[in-house]
C-alpha cells in the first residue's frame, strides 16, 4: 500500500447534457455528453481501507452519510476492492468545496474524487479513462470530472467502452471562457436527476428526438471547439440544454425544473444578446438555476445586466478548471 493521499476532483457543467441511461446497472448513458470542468468548485476525499470496521463508512463535511448516497460510494469501493483483490471496508472522508450558493451539484466532483482516492488507497495504478469508468459507477456526471477543460464522455456499449477523455479546443477559448452561475434557489429539487432522467427516458415521446439531437449537437460542437469559436459553442450549448428540458415536458407525468425566473432569465439573455450583440448563452441543469456562458471581457457587463434585472439572485463566476490532483494526507488541503 502506498502512503495515503487526498484526491481532489472538480465539478463540471455539461454543454451537451447527459440525460437518460441505456443501462442503469452499468451506468451507461443513452448519449455522449461533453462538459467543461470548473475551477472553483471541487471535492477532496481521503480513503482508508481497514479491517477494523464491519462496513464502509462515509463522512461528508464531518456528517455521517447513510442510505442511497452511501450505497453509491460502496458501488465504487466494491469495484476497487475487486480490482485490487482486497475485502476490507473503507473509511471515506470528504470535504466539499462546492458552495450551495453556486447552485452546482457536487455529485460529479464527489464521485470522481472518491474513485481517485479509493484507487490510490488500494494501491491501484489506473489511467484517466479507467478512473473515469470507476467514477461512472458512482454518478454519471462524475465520469467527466477526472480530466480538466473540455471533456467528452463516450456513451459506449459496455463498461470498458463508456469513459471520458479530454477534448482539445483552439486557444484562447479554454483560458477565456467564463461560467456565471445565477442562483434562484438552493433548495433540494423535487425530482432528482436520477429519477428525472429515468422518467424522461421511459415515458417522454420526445426522448428519441432528444438522443438524436444530442448526437447532432455534439457533431457540431467538436469542430466549434477545435476552431475556438465561442459563439458557435454557446449557441449549441444553449439549444442542447433547452432540448433536454423540452423532453421533460413531454414525460408522463410531465415535469420541469424551470421556475418562472429560470425562463425569464433565459428569455432575457436571448433578447439582450440579440439586441446588443453580447456573447452570452444560457444552460440549465436539473434544477432552476441558470449558468451563463460568456468570455472574460464580457463578465463585468453580464454582472451589471444581472444586477439590474435579477437583483436578488446570487451570482458566482468561475472558469475552466483542472483534472484530478493528489495531496499527501496530513497536509492542509483547504487552500
Ligand atoms: C449533465 N445532469 O450532463 C446532466 C444535465 C443534470 C442535467 O448529469 O443518475 O447526478 O447519478 O448518473 O450524474 C446529473 O446526473 O445522475 C447530470 P446519475 P447525475 O451534467
Automatic annotation (TrEMBL):
Residues 180-315 form the Mvd1 C-terminal domain. Its EC number is 4.1.1.33. GO terms for molecular function: diphosphomevalonate decarboxylase activity. SUPFAM superfamilies: GHMP Kinase, C-terminal domain, Ribosomal protein S5 domain 2-like. It comes from the Bacteria. Pfam families: MDD_C, MVD-like_N. Keywords: ATP-binding, Lipid biosynthesis, Lipid metabolism, Lyase, Nucleotide-binding. This is diphosphomevalonate decarboxylase. Residues 9-164 form the Diphosphomevalonate decarboxylase-like N-terminal domain. It comes from Schleiferilactobacillus harbinensis. NCBIfam families: mevDPdecarb. Belongs to the diphosphomevalonate decarboxylase family. The gene is mvaD.
